[in-house]
């Protein structure tokens, strides 16, 4: 039997691990842009699903593929159609092209495309009854995410990078090097699509990918990429504990109209920050816009109270101190 090239084996092993706990007969969808990461992921999922599916060790009942057309780039529909044609030929079932619009979504074009993409993938999973949607983020993506988080002064939540799993989404390649996804494609004769955004210096991530991270690797050695991604995994584990403590503390701090300031004041700062962040989300502040400064302003109502006015949160939310409570108030109309 011909030897399986090491990068192909690495991607397959990661996918096999990532799917190990699926229920019997589960449908798995691969979110595929046609880039090397998600193309190698798709090929591996198809192989693993076929090998371990019906009658095999794993519960995989089928492997489908979804590609999203954001309509933002010239030829994006052609790219989507060619990914879908490849997938049908390769035997993915179902194969779905999801056309989304980013008009009216908050943030820049990249953020809007991401929001629309995740919503479309979630909707496709619900409609098709899929148990998991696989994303092709690699160890290098994780290292870039950690570096970007460090650069903006993020805390443990940001430094934990992208989770292995959230809701229906899974990222089985977070421990696989990006170079291996390219080599896997080459070994399988797959020609990946090159996203021009990935090298566009207008984006901070592209500059991290093209300059900041390669500089760190050149100066500190190639282990940097894996080490940054290990930092993410370590902090993700710490976050789990801190989040549990924060959930309990939030319940203890609840008062008639809001949160009790004395209870909050008795919490360790790390937990209090998380409690206030959670509460702000509960009040409706969008997570993507909720920043360090917003939580600090809430915190000041507890720890630095001198009769100041409300703290303003994204989403048009205002929180004031009333006696010994933090309560939501109607914001004063802006003139
Ligand atoms: N057009 C697309 N159609 C389907 N899936 C896609 C598409 N674009 C990206 N994906 C999925 O998302 C993964 C990450 O892609 P990319 O790095 O381009 O996105 P991102 O903007 O960094 O996303 P994230 O917000 O998750 O970091 C891909 O490996 C693939 O699984």
From TrEMBL:
For this entry, the protein name equals: tRNA(Ile)-lysidine synthase
Q: What reaction(s) does this enzyme catalyze? A: cytidine(34) in tRNA(Ile2) + L-lysine + ATP = lysidine(34) in tRNA(Ile2) + AMP + diphosphate + H(+)
Q: What does this protein do?
A: Ligates lysine onto the cytidine present at position 34 of the AUA codon-specific tRNA(Ile) that contains the anticodon CAU, in an ATP-dependent manner. Cytidine is converted to lysidine, thus changing the amino acid specificity of the tRNA from methionine to isoleucine.
Principal EC category: ligase
Q: Which residues bind ATP?
A: 33-38
The record's GO CC annotations read: cytoplasm
Could you tell me which Pfam families the record lists for this protein? ATP_bind_3, TilS
Q: What is its EC number?
A: 6.3.4.19
GO terms for biological process, alphabetical:
tRNA modification
Entry keyword Metal-binding: no
Gene designation: tilS
UniProt-annotated location(s): Cytoplasm
The molecular function GO annotations come to:
ATP binding; tRNA(Ile)-lysidine synthase activity
Domain tRNA(Ile)-lysidine/2-thiocytidine synthase N-terminal: where? Answer: 28-209
Q: Which UniProt keywords apply?
A: ATP-binding, Cytoplasm, Ligase, Nucleotide-binding, tRNA processing
Q: Tell me which species this is from.
A: Actinoplanes regularis
User: What does the record say about domains?
Assistant: The N-terminal region contains the highly conserved SGGXDS motif, predicted to be a P-loop motif involved in ATP binding.
Organism taxonomic ancestry:
Bacteria, Bacillati, Actinomycetota, Actinomycetes, Micromonosporales
């Amino acid at each position: 039997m011909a030897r399986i090239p090491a990068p192909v084996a690495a991607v397959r092993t990661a996918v096999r691990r990532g799917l190990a706990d699926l229920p019997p007969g589960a449908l798995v969808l691969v979110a595929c842009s046609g880039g090397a990461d998600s193309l190698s992921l798709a090929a591996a999922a198809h192989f693993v699903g076929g090998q371990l599916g019906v009658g095999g060790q794993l519960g995989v009942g089928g492997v489908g593929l979804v590609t999203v057309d954001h309509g933002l780039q010239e030829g994006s529909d052609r790219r989507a159609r060619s990914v879908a044609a490849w997938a049908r030929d390769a035997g993915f079932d179902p194969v779905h092209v999801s056309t989304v619009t980013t008009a009216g979504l908050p943030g820049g074009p990249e953020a809007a495309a991401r929001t629309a993409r995740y919503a479309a993938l979630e909707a496709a999973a619900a409609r098709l009854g899929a148990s998991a949607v696989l994303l092709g983020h690699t160890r290098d993506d994780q290292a870039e995410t950690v570096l970007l988080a460090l650069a903006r002064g993020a805390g443990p939540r940001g430094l934990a990078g992208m989770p292995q799993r959230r809701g229906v989404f899974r990222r089985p390649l977070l421990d696989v090097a990006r170079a291996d996804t390219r080599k896997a494609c080459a070994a399988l004769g797959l020609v990946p699509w090159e996203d021009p955004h990935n090298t566009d210096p207008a984006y901070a991530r592209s500059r991290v990918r093209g300059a900041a991270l390669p500089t760190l690797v050149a100066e500190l050695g190639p282990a940097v990429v894996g080490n940054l991604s290990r930092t993410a995994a370590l902090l993700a584990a710490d976050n789990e504990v801190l989040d549990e403590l924060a959930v309990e503390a939030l319940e203890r701090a609840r008062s008639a109209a809001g949160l009790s300031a004395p209870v909050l004041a008795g919490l360790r700062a790390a937990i209090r920050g998380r409690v206030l962040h959670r509460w702000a989300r509960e009040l409706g502040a969008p997570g993507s816009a909720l920043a360090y400064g917003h939580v600090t302003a809430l915190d000041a109502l507890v720890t630095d109270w001198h009769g100041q006015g409300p703290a303003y949160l994204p989403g048009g939310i205002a929180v004031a101190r009333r006696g010994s409570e933090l309560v939501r108030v109607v914001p004063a109309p802006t003139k």
